[in-house]
Amino acid sequence: MKKLLVFVALLTLIAFGSSGLLAQSGRELRFCLRSEPKTLNPLLAADDASETVRYLTGGVLVRVNRLTQDLEPELAASWKITNGGKTITFQLRDGLRFSDGTPFSADDVAYTMQQLMDPALHSPTGDAFRSSEGKVETQILPKSRVRITFPAPIAGLDRLFDQVAIMSAKSPQKEMAVLGPYFVGENKAGSYLILKRNPNYWEKDPTGRPLPYIESVRLDIQQNRDIEMLRLTRGEIHFINSLDAEYFDKVAAQDPSMAHDAGASLDSEEMWFNQVANSPLPSYKKAWFTSTNFRRAISEAINREDLARIVFRGHAHPAVGPVSPANKFWFNSKLQAHLFDQKSALQRLAQEGFHLQDNVLRDHDGHPVEFSVITNAGNKYRERMATMIQQDLSGVGIKLNVVTLDFPSLIERITRTFDYEACLLGLVNDELDPNAQMTVWLSSADSHQWNPSQKTPATAWEAEIDKLMRAQASTLDPKKRKEDFDRVQEIAWQQEPFIYLVNKNALSAVSPAVHNAHPVVLRPQVYWNIDQLSLTNEVARNR
Amino acid sequence: MKWARTAAIVFLLVVSAACLLANVIAPASYAHQFRDEPNASPSRQHLLGTDDLGRDRFSRVLYGTRVSLLLAPAAALLTSLLAAFIGGLAGFAGGWVERLVMAGTDLFLSLPWLFLLITVRALLPLNVSPIISVLITFAMLGCLGWAGAARIICADAGALAQADFILLARASGSNGFRLLWRHLVPNLKPVLYAQFWISVPVFILTEANLGILGLGVAEPLPSWGSLLRELESFSTASAQPWQLVPLILFILVVSSFHLVLSKEELPV
Q: Which of A365, A364, A327 is nearest to A486 (CA)?
C-alpha cells in the first residue's frame, strides 16, 4: 500500500510537472536543426543550420519578402543605387540598439562591410560582392547615411544585402550582439540552442506592440527524420521547415491541416551529358553527346509527368528550364516543359543517322546506343528517377546503366577526371537573381558542368549565352536584364545542355498551434516571418 | 536439434528452388514498372504489393533472393579457396613464411572493409550491365573476405603439420605436395566447410549493407540489399507490414545457414 501511495504521488508530480511544461510551451517555439551550426558568426554562415541562426538573429539593412519576393526596408529606411550600379547609399533608421543595448550607427555598417570584404575571413556571403578586383569603400555620411562603393557594377546589388547581418563595431559581445528578432541565449553544443527575444528589436506591429511575439525559440539538433516526425506529431516541436515528399504524405495522412505544399520551389533536378572535348570517352559517344538533336531526343523520351507523379508523389512539377516558375520575375513564361513524345524523339534521332534495329538504337556506324548515368548514392529520389529514365529510354531502344557513387567519387569524376557519360544531380537555388547563375552559364566557369573552364566558347550558342549573361550583369535596367535572361532561358531550352527534369515542391509541416504561418517557396519556408508568428497560448493571452 | 537442422535444409532447398524457378513463378518482370500502381497494397495481381516505382514486389523478392542466394555461396567458395591456399601454405611451411604471410593477413584484416569496398566500387568502369555489376560486387566480397578464415586455417594447418601421422608420412618418404594434398587438405576439410558456411551469411549481410548505402547491385536488378532499402523508414514499414517480407526471409535464410552447420563443424 505504501509503495502504491509513493507511485501515485510520483504520477501526480509528473502530471503537474508536465502541465507546467505545457504552460511554458506557449512562449517557446520549437523546431529541429538537422545538424549543429558550424559557426555563429553571421558572416561565415554557409551551412543550413548556421544560416537558420543568422536569419533568426541577424538584423539586415534590407530584406527580401519571401512571400512577395519584393525587397523591403529593415534597418535601412531607404536606399539608392547610383554610379552605374557601383554605389549604394543607405538611409539608416535612427535610435536602434543591438540586443545588448549598444547603439546602432553607420559605423556598424562600415565595420560589417570591412569584415565582410576582408580576404582573410573568407566570408561566403562576401563572395557575392566580389565581382572584380579592387577595394570596397565605405563612406559614413551625415544624417545616418552610409555609402558603399564597389570597384565594378553589381547587378541586383541591393538584394545581396538580404544576406548581410550587421555586426556591432563597439559591443564587447562582438557577433553575439545582434539586431534581429532573437539573440543566442544558450548554446549546448550538439544538443540545442535557445534563442531569446531581443528586447531592443526595432519593429512593432500595427497596434504598437513590440515584435517578435514569441519569447524564445528552441532549436533542437536532430538528424533523424523519423524522430523529428514523431516529435511533431507528439506536439514536442512546432514545425518541420522542409520535408521530402514521403514524409510530407505521412504528415498529410495523420493531420492534413499540418501539411503545407507551397508549390514548385526554386530547386531543380537535372541530367546532363559530358561534352568535355578531352574526356576519356570514345569519339562516337562524344559525337552523340554534343549533338543537339540527341540531347533533345533524350529529353523528349523522358516522361517528366511520371517522374513528378511517382518519384515525388505528385509534389513536384515538370521542369521547364534553368529558372523555376516559382521565380516570379525572372521565369520566362513563354517556355513550356518538354513533352513526353517518343515518336518525336525517334524522328530527331533519325535526323542524326540513328536507327532502330531489333529494338536496339544504333548510330550511323552501327554502335548500339548505351551509356551510363551517375548519381550520388543514398539519394533515393535520384536513384528512382534514374531507374524510371532507364525504362523510358528503353522505349526508344537506348540502354541506360544506372551507377550510384559516393559523393566524393562522383565529384572527382565530374570536375577532375571527366570520366563519366551522363550525370543526374540537383541544383539547390536560394537566389532569385540570375547573377547567382553566372558560374553555371559562363563557358569559362568551373560550374559550367557539361563542359567547364573553356578558354573560348565551344559552340556558337554558348558564346551567345556568355554575351547575354555579361550584358545582363552590366546593366541596371531590369527590363533589359529580363530580356537578356529570357533569351538565355530560350537557348537553354532549345539546346538542353542540362535536361531539366522536375522542380520539387516546397513542402513543410506546421502545427496548428502556430499562428500566422504562411509557408512559402523561398527559404526559410516556414519561419521567414518569425517576428509575426505567435503560439496558441500567446494568442489566448492577448485576447 | 537434428530436426532444426533438417528443417533449415528443407527451407533452404525450398527457397533455392523457388528462386531458381523465378522465371516461371514470378507474375511479372522484376524491372517492369506498373506506373499506375506505385506503392500498391497486396492483391491477386501483386501478392506483396508494388514498390515505389510500381514494380511487383513478389517478383523482385524472388529474383533478389536468387541473386543473393546464388552469388553469396559463390563468393564464400572463392573466399574459402583463397583462405585454404594462403592459410594452408603458411601453416604448413611455418617459420618465417608463416610469420610473413600472417603479418600480411593482419594488415589485410585491419583495413576498413566497407570503405575499401566503396572505393573499389567507385574505381570500376561505369558502363557495365546490372548482371556484371552484381558479379563484380560479389567477386570483390569473395576476394576481400579471405583474411579471417586464413588465420584459422593457418593455425589448424600448423598444428596438423606437427601431428604424428604427418611425421609418419614424412618418414615414409612422402614429398611436400603429396603431404599437402593427401594428408593435410583432407584433415582441413571440416574447418574449410565451416568457414564456407559462415561466410555465406556474412556476404549476404555485406551486400545488404552496400545496398542500403546505395552501392550494391545496380538497378533495376534486385538483391536483398536493394529490397531492404525500402525499410529505411521505420514508419513506412510499420504502415505497410508486407514490406517486411524480404527482411523476414533474409533472417530465416541467414539463420538456416547457421543451423545447417553441425555442432562439430562450428568453429571453436
A: A327
